[in-house]
Amino acid sequence: MNNQDTEKEQPPSSFLNKIKRFFTIKPSSLDDVSVLLEDALTARLIDKEAQFIAERAIRLGDTTVKEIMVPRVEMIILAPDEDPVTMINRIIDSGHSRYPVLGPAKNEVRGILLAKDLLPTINKDLEDFNLPNLIRDIKVVPESKKADSLLEEFKKDRSHMAIVIDEYGTISGLVTIEDILEELVGEIEDEHDSDDEDLIQVSEYEYIADATLELSEFENKFDKNFNGLDAETLAGLFINKLGFLPKVGDKIELDDMILAVTAADKRKIKKIGITIKTNS
């Protein structure tokens, strides 16, 4: 082998220098890690998707379950004494695989029902149906718990859902392993997700709306008129009225209704609860 062949087999020095850099730089902050990931992308050591996931992974430790949970108003819950036919129909309509079971007392968590545990009872006499016999234990975690820590717990005990409580022990929502994974890889849609359900009525006077709901659709549904307002979506209306990017819990009043942010992250609003005010 001659010197010319040896030289051809050597990688470019600039590439070697970039590789060496990853072994010489000791990051002291998350921003430093982001710089390293950007360099790795530029050097084509990783692709854009890998950089995206890595960036979100290193910041998962700063994310609390309160930021990613499904708020209480959006939870589909079951009661131990609920009519079995009504309950089964609601489970079929919603299409979820897991349902929290709450007792009659305020903030009483009984457990979780797996939809698959209902299968053996479907063709049997429902007069003998006993929901408490099918309930499994469910985790209860505080709002302040970090998402990365909960993910490790989910992996360790092979669970997929937890009830979230605030500092006073009040149920504020639920969080699933899918919610955490979506923080890493982005939105995960399944066969039950629908783009048509931008506005859902959850009770006689309460609705849940996607923040991207067209303002014109909101106006038509609730007989409102926001002519001249510089907004095209419900989120735009909320921000316009509030004056800044809202967080979960922020509210505005519009005539006979109250709008409250029920789900949001650091960049945008996701869900808005709508409550029609009554005289009672």
Number of helices: 10
Largest sheet: 5 strands, antiparallel
Task: Give the integer mean of the pLDDT values.
Answer: 80
Q: What is the global morphology?
A: globular
The strands making up the biggest β-sheet line up spatially as: 7-8-11-10-9
- Whole-number radius of gyration? 25 Å
Helix/strand class: alpha+beta
What's the helical proportion of residues?
A: 25-40%
Order of helices and strands: HHHHHEHEEEHEEHEEHHEEE
Write a short abstract of this structure.
The protein contains 10 helices and 11 strands. The chain has helices at 3-9, 13-24, 30-42, 48-58, 65-68, 84-94, 147-157, 177-185, 215-222, 234-242, and strands spanning 70-71, 98-102, 109-114, 139-142, 161-165, 171-176, 199-203, 206-210, 251-254, 257-264, 269-276. The relative contact order is 0.10.
Explain what the structure shows:
The protein is of the alpha+beta class. It contains 10 helices and 11 strands. The protein has a 5-stranded antiparallel beta sheet, with helices on one face. A hairpin with a 6-residue loop joins strand 2 and strand 3. The N terminus is likely disordered.
Question: Would you spell out the secondary-structure blueprint of this structure?
Answer:
Blueprint: H1 3-9, H2 13-24, H3 30-42, H4 48-58, H5 65-68, E1 70-71, H6 84-94, E2 98-102, E3 109-114, E4 139-142, H7 147-157, E5 161-165, E6 171-176, H8 177-185, E7 199-203, E8 206-210, H9 215-222, H10 234-242, E9 251-254, E10 257-264, E11 269-276
Parallel strand pairs: 4-5
Antiparallel strand pairs: 1-6, 2-3, 5-6, 7-8, 8-11, 9-10, 10-11
Helix pairs in contact: 3-4
